[in-house]
Specification:
The protein is of the alpha+beta class. The protein has helices spanning about 15-30, 45-60, 85-95, and strands at about 1-10, 35, 40-45, 65-75. It has a 4-stranded antiparallel β-sheet, covered by helices on one side.
Length: about 100
């Protein structure tokens, strides 16, 4: 499964990068395949692994912020591995080039 999620601290002002970094650090230290972009962090693994990482990422932000917002989207597709890469590669192939050609 792939979960894309966003953790946002509330009540800490406009500059939230430091708090978001705490959540991303948890994801990266999990050892699960992951990718972070400007809006979401995606993580891939089985249900229990991924949900544990999301819970710990939220807890990392919650430890320093009075309120936390969580947005989560899940792609639950048993038997699929390396979805973070293969889904993007498929789109790039349909665009007429490999991922390397889009850079």
């Amino acid at each position: 499964m792939i979960v894309a999620f966003s953790v946002t601290p509330l009540g800490v002002g406009e500059d939230v990068g430091e708090y978001v970094a705490d959540a991303v650090r948890v994801v990266r230290e999990s050892g699960l395949p992951n990718r972070t972009d400007a809006m979401f962090t995606s993580v891939e693994g089985d249900w229990d692994e991924v949900m544990d990482v999301v819970k710990r990422a939220v807890a990392a932000v919650e430890a320093r912020a009075p309120r936390v917002s969580l947005v989560l989207k899940a792609d639950i597709r048993p038997g699929v591995e390396d979805g973070l890469t293969s889904k993007v590669d498929t789109v790039e192939r349909h665009l007429g080039g490999g991922a390397d050609e889009s850079a």
